[in-house]
User: Which sequence fits this backbone?
């Protein structure tokens, strides 16, 4: 990626070198920041306020530095600024953390991973592990309340089972449905209003809603010119302005002025797609939108939201799809299926507040080192813990680390150590297997 950028921007070698150094720092040292959640809060605050933390690593300062501020010091080239500053999670670069953006770009530097067989494989395999160790997994079983006793300790959940509600008691309750749902919907009003709960909520804002188009085509990737690469497509190279203008637009203006989109082709990434769906391809297009544009239909039911809603969402969809068609011209006549998701769809299917699929907003304030240290997996309610993407950051990798940090908190044991030992064991096993293979060949 570095060599490629240097070829594209031959006058920006120094800026590229510096940014790649930041990417490396973010990849190698962000765990310093995340581990703030595992050491006593007063120690973290002492280290941060005394400036000792900054002497240890630049990550504590970088995480609270807005991307635009930092990138402006590297280059004035707007195209390169865009490459350095932007990923799709709904926050303009001037309000996002340079460390988190660098981390995301690093994550994609050599290309990302895709689960063989599709995203459902993740749940499929995790469930087997949960069951193997005596746990279980319920579906279509929404939790309506986290049970808290008079002493203020969580002791279970109230879950819907068919038409009735049942109580499931447990010594520990872990919630990964986001801080807003957990604190504002699942705790009783008397607990919600407590100062420390409000303090936790005030650290976060609701994230932007997302808008997705899922399309299916007749034809293979080769026939349709589809590739396994992700595309981030922009109309303008000034993302701060583009996003500010877009999110200031009225409901009427927005569908015709979308400034950016993300295109991904799952079927081209999944080697099993060819076997399960021969001769077919699929594509997902994503952009971020304002929940308010769709809010008037919030009390309607999924798939029965009426013509006005349908026509409105299809205005976004048509513009996005026509734009995608300029990137992949062979797809248009091959479209055989299309479904369009708005923030309301995400609320229905993902339980995402205000349709924010990345849950709480990823603004720079959230990544101030002090906020990172305060937004921990433990909560003001004893025995209630937060996991998932609201712990540190969004995405599968972000949610995974949320889980690891949460497990470490609950068990009072840093499970990353076990993970490192497991990694070493697997590496040794692989080396042995390769050596045996070499021997056989000889
Ligand atoms: C279409 C799409 C594509 C994506 N693509 C990528 C990608 O390519 N790479 C990537 O890294 N990330 C991707 N993401 C983001 C990624 O999926 C999320 O960041 C991640 O799943 C967050 O994990 P989580 O466990 O924190 O929350 P979630 O996965 O959202 O899980 C929260 C769970 O809580 C459940 N829930 C909510 N309320 C209740 C309740 N009251 N009772 C019981 N259960 C409840 C929800 O049903 C949900 O299953 C994508 C997201 C979407 C929607």
Assistant:
């Amino acid at each position: 990626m570095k060599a490629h950028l240097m070829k594209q921007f031959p006058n920006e070698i120094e800026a590229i070198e510096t940014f790649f150094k930041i990417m490396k720092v973010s990849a190698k040292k962000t765990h310093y920041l995340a581990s703030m959640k595992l050491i006593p809060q007063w120690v973290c605050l002492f280290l941060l306020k005394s400036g000792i933390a900054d002497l240890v690593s630049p990550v504590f300062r970088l995480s609270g530095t807005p991307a635009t501020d930092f990138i402006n010091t590297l280059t004035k080239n707007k195209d390169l600024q865009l490459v350095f500053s932007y990923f799709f999670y709904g926050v303009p670069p001037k309000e996002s953390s340079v460390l988190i953006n660098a981390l995301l770009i690093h994550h994609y530097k050599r290309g990302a991973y895709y689960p063989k067989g599709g995203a459902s494989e993740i749940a499929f395999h995790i469930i087997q592990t949960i069951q193997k160790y005596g746990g279980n997994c319920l579906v279509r079983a929404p939790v309506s309340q986290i049970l808290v006793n008079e002493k203020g300790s969580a002791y279970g959940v109230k879950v819907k089972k068919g038409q009735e509600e049942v109580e499931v008691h447990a010594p520990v309750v872990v919630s990964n449905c986001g801080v807003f749902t957990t604190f504002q919907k699942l705790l009783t009003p008397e607990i919600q209003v407590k100062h420390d709960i409000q303090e936790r909520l005030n650290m976060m804002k609701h994230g932007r809603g997302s808008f997705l188009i899922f399309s299916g085509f007749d034809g293979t990737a080769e026939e349709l010119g589809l590739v396994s690469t992700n595309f981030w497509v922009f109309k303008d190279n000034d993302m701060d302005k583009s996003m500010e203008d877009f999110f200031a637009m009225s409901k009427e203006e927005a569908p015709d002025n979308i400034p950016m989109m993300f295109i991904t082709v799952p079927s081209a990434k999944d080697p099993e797609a060819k076997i399960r769906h021969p001769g077919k391809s699929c594509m997902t297009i994503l952009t971020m939108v304002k929940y308010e544009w769709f809010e008037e239909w919030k009390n309607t039911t999924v798939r029965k939201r009426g013509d006005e809603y349908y026509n409105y969402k299809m205005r976004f969809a048509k513009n996005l799809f026509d734009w995608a068609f300029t990137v992949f011209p062979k797809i248009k006549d091959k479209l055989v299926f299309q479904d369009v998701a708005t923030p309301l769809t995400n609320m229905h299917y993902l339980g995402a507040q205000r349709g924010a699929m990345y849950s709480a907003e990823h603004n720079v304030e959230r990544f101030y080192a002090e906020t990172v240290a305060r937004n921990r997996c433990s909560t003001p309610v004893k025995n209630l813990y937060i996991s998932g993407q609201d712990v540190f950051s969004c995405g599968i990798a972000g949610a995974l680390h949320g889980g690891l940090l949460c497990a470490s908190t609950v068990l009072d044991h840093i499970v990353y150590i076990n993970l490192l030992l497991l990694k070493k064991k697997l590496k040794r096993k692989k080396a042995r297997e390769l050596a045996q293979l070499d021997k056989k060949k000889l």
Residues 142-143, 176-177, 181, 212, 350-351, 357-358, 388-389, 394-397, 399 surround flavin-adenine dinucleotide (CB under 6 Å).
